[in-house]
Amino acid sequence: MSDLVTLPRFGVTAALVADTFQEAMARWLFWALFGLSTLLILFFLFILKIDVVDGAISLLGLQSTSHSFSDLQRIVHLAYSRVALFLYVWGTFLAVFASAGLMPSVLEPGRVGLLLSKPITRPVLLMGRFLGNLLIVSANVCYLILSIWIIIGIKTGMWDPAFLLSIPFTVFVFAVLLCVVVFIGVVFESAPVAVMVAAALMLVSGILAQKGNVVKLLSSEWSRDLWTWLYWASPKVWDLGRAMMNLISDRSAEWWAPAWTSAAFGIVVLAAAIQIFRKRDY
Amino acid sequence: MDAHYAIETEGLEKIYRSRFRGRQIRAVSDLTLRVPEGVKFGLLGANGAGKTTFVKMLLSAVHPTAGRAALFGRDAGEPESRRPVGYLPENHRFPTYFTGAGMLNFYGALSGMAAVERGKRIPELLAVVGLSDWGDVRIKKYSKGMLQRLGLAQALLHRPRLLVLDEPTDGVDPLGRRQIRDTLNSLLDTGVTIFINSHLLSEVEVFCDRVAIIHKGRLALEGRIRDLVAGRGYKLVAVQATDEVRRAVSVVTASATLESDRLETQMSDRGELNRVIDILRQSGALIESVTATVSTLEDVFIRTTQGETAIAPPQATEVMA
User: What's the total number of domains in chain A?
Assistant: First the structure.
């Protein structure tokens, strides 16, 4: 019995993570996510030969000179970046859609009461769920992007490791949006509302990112300040996607400010979710 | 708070506030109760009396508005206080993607059991609750009775010192009830404190040593079952009685009902009985029958919740195991 008392905390967290994995595996939505990823991989396998490589080579028509090789390389980098952006948007939205139900399900009456009766704190319970969700989506993102990277590499003979940057970017943005999903899950206990809010944030980030142009159109000082404030306070899904694309195609981009402000947004939202969860009666 | 008590509450109160209308519902009010270690304790109350809210406050699923609760002397709000507790909730919803053994493994891990310990205990417990052949079957194929027994195995897995069972036999067929009762009986010599929250009075009467009755969120009565049901009495039926006779009888005993000219009354002792007989003889009513009665827990419960007996004030009632 002594080992019952001294069991390390990570054992409990591991159990919660494993439970989230198991629940995800039992949901058709996660299999659909995995299936769509596989479908996309197969699609790239067939499309790539015709359009991207052969198309680019025949367009240039000059394979032997160093100049043309550089152009081809640039085109392939550009193609890589566009593919990465597509996977970023596709992967993030589908992952949010598939994950939205995992938080409300654990808060169902008759289930949460038993979980709370165990010798664990509420933040550990919530974080275990969060981590499990994040890990399963990360696994799917890795499967999708690594597969496509390998396909492109084999087909073109150009192995661009920068393409793999789309993995941390996609997982990071998903983690930020997952904080929102968890928050909505705790407050409203509703998966559809969580999807709607996360999708709205993705959309709004694209609008707010136009601040350079919009600010010039706004007449009052306070409206310009409000737009700028909203831009910095919200997750920058759009800007991070653009930064990722530029990093892959041009090898340079301003990504630090959008990244840390988005991370701060996620941390604040997750902390609020934990605080509300701690105070709630079930 | 005293570590000798498995459960100890002091002035526990829960008020639910409506988020938008600001309406308040007092679910539990000034509830002080002590349950010594090793007893089999029944918590009774009508639907909506506050029993489940009380249990949820003990297990930290609901935060008290006022007062204190402790488990084995430790504040119930601390996660560590729940380590020696096994809990079977009412209307539980076990995740259906688990197999029986998988579910026990998960909740065992959350209770702090090491993997090796779980590996030994799970087959043992499945055998105890009669589900040895069902360990690898998904829970969604389980019947209500099987789920309840699996839930009991979950509650017992980490060898708790306190077992809290919320309506353990609710919706279970007689055979299933017998199996649950047999499992609980097997724990009698282990020193485990069993706290049963139920509205099935007969089961509580058979199984528990002590009971508390909650009425409208307050502790209405608490004591040993054998003391509470010991009150013998007499039931008298008379005919040709009038309302004037009923009023005269009501002075002696509060329990007097008149239907047409038929009067039924319950007396708690021989003195009351003789005084009522005198009144009836003087009034010309005819005595049809006098029967000696024995009180059951159901009688005690109904009298208590209908306010027909003096209700104990909600104060600490120290009880001995």
Answer: 1
